[in-house]
Write a structure and sequence with these properties.
Structural class: alpha+beta
Helix content: 25-40%
Shape: globular
Oligomer: single chain
Distance between the termini: 64 Å
CATH architecture of the largest domain: 2-Layer Sandwich
CATH class of the largest domain: Alpha Beta
Number of domains: 2
Order of helices and strands: HHEHEEEEHEEEEHEEEEE
Radius of gyration: 19 Å
Strand content: 35-45%
CATH superfamily of the largest domain: NusG, N-terminal domain
Largest sheet: 5 strands, antiparallel
């Protein structure tokens, strides 16, 4: 019975302090590209392996012909962030649903700065707490124009306006780790460049 308890304790510890961290390997956040609509399954598998991961989720109201329902969706469709080392590269790629790491010149996974992960977490928190409904300005925006984020954790980032969903919600393509990722953002948090 003692051995079993220590095994469980080791598993709990490995979730908080990844094995690679204990082995003094370089740990960093990376973005992985996964199959469409399999983000939550991949996160479940990563968690079972003891790998720290982050899937930013936002709650949206979906309208069907007969009902409305709140649905939790990934902020970045088909992307999951993992805190991993080089040794974990192959085991992560072998998970069902994982297609590839976001790479730099097809040589090594791009490190995502901790500050960007924290900014995404803050954005998700603000979104869930209704900050997106505060209207700050009413300047006219057009699809295709460049915009700058003026408030919140992503303040200062620029991107291309892709879609105007309604008066309060936009989709802006922002370059993150060498790729353009769609960000759902409140109208109040952007201005034309």
């Amino acid at each position: 019975m003692e051995e079993r308890k220590s095994t469980v304790s080791a598993k709990k510890t490995s979730k908080k302090v990844p094995a690679a961290k204990r082995d003094h390997e370089k740990m960093a956040w990376h973005a992985i590209y996964v199959r469409s609509r399999s983000e939550k399954k991949v996160v479940s598998q990563l968690t079972e392996m003891g790998i720290v991961c982050y899937l930013p989720l936002v709650t949206r109201v979906k309208q069907w012909s007969d009902r409305r329902k709140k649905v939790e969706e990934p902020l970045f469709k088909s992307y999951v962030f993992v805190y991993s080392s080089d040794k974990q590269y192959v085991p992560i790629l072998n998970l069902f649903g994982v297609l590839k790491f976001v790479m730099f010149e097809k040589q090594h996974p791009v490190d995502v700065p901790e500050s960007q992960i924290l900014a995404i977490k803050k954005f998700v928190s603000d979104y869930e707490h209704g900050e997106e409904y505060k209207m700050l300005n009413n300047e006219e925006l057009k699809v295709g124009q460049m915009v700058r984020i003026i408030s919140g954790p992503m303040k200062g980032l620029t991107g291309r306006l892709e879609t105007i969903r309604d008066k309060r919600h936009l989709i802006v393509y922002i370059e993150v780790v060498g790729q353009f990722i769609p960000v759902h953002i409140p109208r109040a948090k952007v201005e034309p460049v």
